[in-house]
TrEMBL record:
Catalytic function, reaction form: Release of any N-terminal amino acid, including proline, that is linked to proline, even from a dipeptide or tripeptide
Listed name of the protein: Xaa-Pro aminopeptidase
Entry-linked CDD domains: Prolidase
Region of interest: Disordered: 1-33
Length: 489
C-alpha cells in the first residue's frame, strides 16, 4: 500500500469545509512545493458523466420513501449511511452503508445522508453526499480519501441522475440540521456527527419508532428485492459447487481453503459474502457460528457449510448444506441427516400465506423431538419434550429467520409483526433445522458425539404456498451423494 503525501503549504491543506487534509506522520516526502501544488491544479480533462441511467431499483426506492413520508407527516427524517471505520492506524474496513439508507436510496457511499424535509403535501427528499474531491486545494491527491487514492466518486449532478433524488454537499448538512426547527427523527448508530448536530432536537423514543418502521417495511419484499434474492441464491449455489470440486485441496490444508473458495465466487459475482462463512468440519459443525475456519478437513467427517453471496445491491442468500467430505454418508451420519431433512420438509410445508410465522418452527421441532425420543436420547412422550423444550439440548436454535438486506433481516420489528404474525406473500425466510451432538456430551452414545447437521434453504412465501429459492442445491441424502460424485467426477 502506497503512502500518502503531506502538504507543507497550509493554503492547500484545507478542504472547502476548512477541515485539514489528513496527513501521514512518517511520510517520505517532507512537503509539497508551491510549483508542484500549482502544477497539480491544471492539465486535467473534464470527466463529468452525462446521460446516466438511474439505478434498477429507482422506482422501488421512491415508493419506499413515499411510504416513509406517509408514516411521519410533518416531521424531518434523517437517515445516514454511516462513516468509514478504522481497522488499524490509517487503514479502514471495507464500507457497507446502513441497511436503512441503502433500502431508501440504493446509494452505498460513506458519509451519505438522506433527509426528508416536511412540506404541505408530504416531504421533499435530498441525498447529501460528498462531491468529487477538490482539485483546486489539492484534496484529490493529498487527502487519503481523495480521488487519486481511493477512486472517483460521482459528482452531485451525476448522483441526481443515478439515484433520482436531488443531491447536495453533505459537508454543509450538520450546520443546516443545527438550525432546523420542528420535530426530527434520525436513524441512530451510524453517524455520530449527524447525531451531535441533532442532539437537542431528537428523542430516543421517537428515533426507535423510525427504526422499527423501517425494519417492518422490509418484511414483505417487492419484485426487485425478490429478484436480487434469487440472484444471491443462484451465485451461492455455484459457490457450493466450487467447494465440492476442491474438497481434496481442503483436506490437504484446512477449512480456510473452503472459506477462500466460496469467497472468490462471492467477490466475482457479487459484492461480498453476506456474513462470515461457516466452514465447519467434523466436531466444529456442532458450534453454531463457527467462523474461525482453521480446523482440519478429514475424509469420513461431515462438512457443515453455511454461506451466502451478497449481491451488488446488498441482498444476501443464507444456505446450509452438510456434506460428507469423502462423498458418502456413514450409516449413522445418514440417519441423523435424514432426520433433519424430514424436519426441514415439515417446516417448508408449513410456510404458506395465512399460516402463523411460528408454524414452520413448530413443525420442524416436532419431527426432531420425535426422532430424539425414538432413538432413546430423551424420555417421551413427545408432547412433554416439546412443552419443556428438552429437544433444545441438541437443536439449540430457532428454525429460521427473515432474510433480505440483512442476513437476519427486520430484526427490530415488533414481535407482533414478526414472530407472532401471519405469513404474507412476498415474505422471505430461512428454514434451517439442525441436530448437534457435542463432542463432550455424555448423555448420547459415543458414536453420536461430534456429529452436527443443519440443512437451510431460502423460502419465499407466494400467493398459493411457497417457492424454494435455493432448490438448485440438492437436499435429500442420496441426491447429495449423487451431486457430489458428479461434480468430483
Amino acid at each position: 500500500m502506497s503512502e500518502e503525501l503531506t502538504p507543507e503549504n497550509p493554503e492547500i491543506s484545507q478542504t472547502e469545509s476548512d477541515e485539514p487534509i489528513k496527513q501521514r506522520k512518517n511520510g517520505l516526502y517532507p512537503g509539497v512545493s508551491d510549483e508542484l501544488a500549482e502544477s497539480m491544479k491544471s492539465g486535467w480533462a473534464d470527466t463529468e458523466l452525462h446521460g446516466l441511467e438511474p439505478i434498477a431499483q429507482a422506482s422501488e426506492t421512491a415508493a419506499r420513501r413515499a411510504a416513509l413520508s406517509a408514516r411521519f407527516p410533518g416531521e424531518r427524517i434523517v437517515v445516514p449511511a454511516g462513516n468509514l471505520k478504522t481497522r488499524s492506524n490509517d487503514t479502514e474496513y471495507a464500507f457497507r452503508a446502513s441497511t436503512e439508507y441503502a433500502y431508501l436510496t440504493g446509494n452505498q457511499t460513506e458519509d451519505g445522508v438522506l433527509v426528508l424535509e416536511p412540506t404541505a403535501t408530504g416531504h421533499h427528499a435530498t441525498i447529501y453526499l460528498l462531491p468529487r474531491s477538490d482539485r483546486e486545494n489539492g484534496e484529490f491527491w493529498l487527502d487519503g480519501q481523495g480521488e487519486l487514492w481511493v477512486g472517483r466518486r460521482h459528482s452531485l449532478t451525476e448522483a441526481e441522475q443515478v439515484y433520482g433524488i436531488p443531491a447536495s454537499d453533505v459537508r454543509e448538512l450538520a450546520g443546516k440540521l443545527g438550525e432546523a426547527t420542528g420535530p426530527v427523527r434520525v436513524v441512530r448508530g451510524h453517524d455520530s456527527g449527524i447525531e451531535a448536530a441533532l442532539a437537542d432536537k431528537v428523542t430516543r423514543e421517537h428515533d426507535e419508532e423510525l427504526r422499527v418502521f423501517l425494519s417492518e417495511a422490509r418484511l414483505v419484499k417487492d419484485a426487485f428485492e425478490v429478484g436480487e434474492l434469487q440472484k444471491a441464491v443462484d451465485s451461492t449455489v455455484r459457490g457450493f459447487e466450487d467447494v465440492v470440486k476442491v474438497l481434496d485441496k481442503a483436506e490437504a490444508t484446512s477449512e480456510r481453503y473452503i472459506e477462500g473458495t466460496f469467497f472468490l465466487r462471492a467477490r466475482v459475482e457479487g459484492n461480498d459474502i453476506g456474513y462470515g462463512s461457516i466452514c465447519a468440519s467434523g466436531p466444529h459443525a456442532c458450534t453454531l457460528h463457527w467462523v474461525r475456519n482453521d480446523g482440519p478437513v478429514r475424509s469420513g467427517d461431515l462438512l457443515l457449510l453455511d454461506a451466502g453471496v451478497e449481491t451488488h445491491s446488498l441482498y444476501t442468500a443464507d444456505i446450509t448444506r452438510t456434506l460428507p467430505v469423502n462423498g458418502r454418508y456413514t450409516e449413522l451420519q445418514k440417519k441423523i441427516y435424514d432426520a433433519v431433512y424430514e424436519a426441514q420438509e415439515a417446516g417448508i410445508a408449513a410456510v404458506k400465506p395465512g399460516a402463523k410465522y411460528r408454524d414452520f418452527h413448530d413443525a420442524a421441532q416436532r419431527v426432531l423431538a420425535e426422532k430424539l425420543v425414538e432413538w432413546g436420547l430423551v424420555e417421551g412422550p413427545v408432547e412433554r419434550v416439546l412443552e419443556l423444550g428438552l429437544q433444545r439440548r441438541w437443536t439449540l436454535h430457532g428454525t429460521g429467520h427473515m432474510l433480505g438486506l440483512d442476513v437476519h433481516d427486520c430484526a427490530v420489528a415488533r414481535t407482533e409483526t414478526y414472530v407472532d404474525a401471519t405469513l404474507e406473500p412476498g415474505m422471505c425466510l430461512t428454514v434451517e433445522p439442525g441436530l448437534y451432538f457435542q463432542a463432550d456430551d455424555l448423555t448420547v452414545p459415543e458414536e453420536y458425539r461430534g456429529i452436527g447437521v443443519r440443512i437451510e434453504d431460502d423460502i419465499l412465501v407466494t400467493e398459493d404456498g411457497n417457492r424454494n429459492l435455493s432448490a438448485g442445491l440438492p437436499r435429500r441424502s442420496d441426491e447429495v451423494e449423487a451431486w457430489m460424485a458428479q461434480l468430483k467426477g
